[in-house]
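Holo prediction — 5-O-phosphono-beta-D-ribofuranosylamine.
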Amino acid sequence: MSEASTFRIAVLASGTGTNLQAILDRLHGRHGIGVVGVGSNKNDAQALARAEAAGIETATFERDDYADRVARDAALGDWLEALRVDLVALAGYMELLSPELVGRFANRIVNVHPALLPSFPGLDAIGQALDAEAEVTGVTVHFVDEGVDTGPIIVQRPVQVPADHDRDALEATIHAIEHELYPEAIRMIAAGRVSLEAGDPALVRIAPGD
Ligand code: GRF
C-alpha cells in the first residue's frame, strides 16, 4: 500500500483495547487503511501493548502531566496532526474531549458505544440497559461532538437482552458485535461513503457500496 493513498487512522484507547485489536486485525494494512498511531490517557493501558506488538507508534497523554484538559488535548491534537490522520477512532477512551480538540478534527472523530443511542449514553451503558429492564439494547457507531455520546449516528445494530439478564452473556454479545460493526463503519468512512447532510447536522448519509 503506498503511503500517499493510505487512509490514516489514529485510535485512542484507555483500557483492554479489544476494539483496537479488531481494527488492527480487520483493517490495518488492508482496504487502503493504515493505523498510524495509538494514543492513551493511561501509561499502562493494554491497548498500548497491542499497538506495540503491531509495530504502531504510541503516545500517552496523562491527566497529571498537563495543567488542564485543554492543555492536554492541545498536545494530543498536535500529535494527531503530526501523524496527518484522516480519522480518529475512540475505542474505550475514557476521557471527554475538549471542545477545542473536537473542533480541530470536526467530523473526523468517531466512537463506538455499547447501547442504541440516544438510549443509555455515558458510563456503564450495559448496566444501564439491565437496570432499565430493556429487552433490546445494542451497539452504535457515531461521530463525536462536544457532548457525551450525542454526535450524529452512523450505524447501529440491536442486541436482544437475554431473558435471564445475564450480564456476562450480554457483554460478550455486545463486544462481538462492536468488533464487527466498528471496523465496518470505519471502512465505509475510508471509502468515502459516509457524509453529513449539510442542512441537518444530525443526519448521516451512507452511499451504497459495490
Ligand atoms: C467498549 O465496550 C466500547 O463500546 C466502549 O468501551 C469499551 C472498550 O472496550 N466505548 P475495549 O477496550 O475495546 O475492549
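READOUT: The domain at 111-210 is CATH 3.40.50.170 (Rossmann fold).
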